[in-house]
Amino acid sequence: MLRLLIILLISVAFGDVNSELIRIPLTKFKTVRQSFIEVGTNTNIINTKYGPCPGNPVPEVLFNYMDAQYYGPISIGYPPQTFRVIFDTGSANLWVPSATCPYSNVACQLHNKYDNKKSVSYKPNGTAISIGYATGSMKGFLSTDTMSIAGLNIADQTFAEAVTEPGATFAAAKFDGIMGMGFNRISILNVETVFDNMLKQKLVEPKFSFFLNRDANDQYGGEMLLGGSDPAYYTGNFTYLNISRPAYWQFKMDYMEVGGAKFCNGGCQAICDSGTSLIGVPTALLGPIQKAIGAKKEGGLYQVPCNETSTLPNLNFSLGDKLFILEPRDYIVNLTNSVTKKVRCISGITGIDVPWPRGPFWILGDIFMGRFYTEFDKGNNRIGFADVKR
C-alpha cells in the first residue's frame, strides 16, 4: 500500500503533459573520431548490430559525437536518473549501464549507472539478456521502471540494465546507452520498444523524425522529433517509401550511381539507420564503388587527396524514382591527427555483409540522414526523405 501511495504521488508530481513543443538545447562534444578510426575500421562501434499531446511533435535535441553518433538525454526511475543514449533506428531495445556492474568493467564505471534501489517506481524482472555488437556483447538483465524523455513520462518501460558493455571502445564513448527506435520484430526477448509503449499510452502520434546537423563546428547536434516533423528543417515535400519488412526501417532502393557506374541496378533492399555513422554497402561492391569515387586504400582506409575533393563525383541514390544526391562535401570525412595535425580525407563508405534473413541490404546511415531530413512514419508503415535546408 505504501508503494502504491508513492506511485500515486509520482503521478501527481508529473502532472499533465504539456501541449507545446519541448526543445532541449544540448552541448556537442569536440570530435574524437580519430581515436576510433585509427584502429583500422571505417565503421562506428555499433555499425554492425543487427509534448506533448497527440498531434504535437516533441523535439529531442541531439548531441553530435564523432560527427556521427547523435545522442540525447532520457531519465529512468523516480527520482529521475539521467542518461545519454543514442536514438538508434537500427535496433529496438533500450539499455543503460547498471549500478551492479563490476568495478573491473571500465566502460561501465565511466558512465552514468542506473541504481534500481534508488527508484521507488522500480519493478523487478531479472530476466537475463545479451545483445551482440561488432565489438562484443552487452550482457545484463531486464528491469521495469518509469521513463521520461523530453517531458513525456512513459509508465512501465522494460529495459536492460547492462552489467557488461560491448567492448572497451565504449569506455571512450560520450553516450551511456542505446535506445532502439526500430520495430519490435528485432527486439531481443520481444521487449516492448519505448516508442510502442508511447503509442500504447497515447503520448504521441505514430511517427518521429530526425534532423542531424553535420556542421562539425556547430555545438548544436540536431533534433529528434517525436510525433511529427518540423518544416523549418527541410524544403519541398517528402518522398515516401513503403517499408518492405517492418523489422529495421527497410525499403527498396532503385539503384546507386557514381561516376557513370551503376550499383544495385534493378533494385535492392536498404535500411535507414541513425545508429550507423557511414554508408554501408555489400563488401563485394566496396572496391568498385571506391574506385568509381577515386578513393585508394591506404592504411586500411579509403582516402582521397584533400585538395581534390571538390572534383570527386556525386553519389546518386534513386529512391522512389527520385534522385537523392550526396556531394563530396557530404560523404568525405576530414580527419585531423591530434598529434601531427595532419588532415586526411576519408571516404564515408564502408563494406558490410548482413546475411539472410536479415540481409543483404545497404545501410543509409548518418552521412545520408545528415543531408536528407528523415521521417519514420509507423502509422503508415513508410519512411520519408526531404532535402535539408542548408
TrEMBL record:
GO terms for biological process: proteolysis. Keywords: Aspartyl protease, Disulfide bond, Glycoprotein, Hydrolase, Protease, Signal. The keyword Signal applies. It comes from the Eukaryota. Disulfide bonds join 101-108, 264-268, 306-345. GO terms for cellular component: lysosome. Residues 70-386 form the Peptidase A1 domain. The active site is at residues 88, 273. Pfam families: Asp. Residues 1-19 form the signal peptide. One of its GO terms (molecular function) is aspartic-type endopeptidase activity. The keyword Glycoprotein applies. Belongs to the peptidase A1 family. This is Peptidase A1 domain-containing protein. It comes from Henosepilachna vigintioctopunctata.
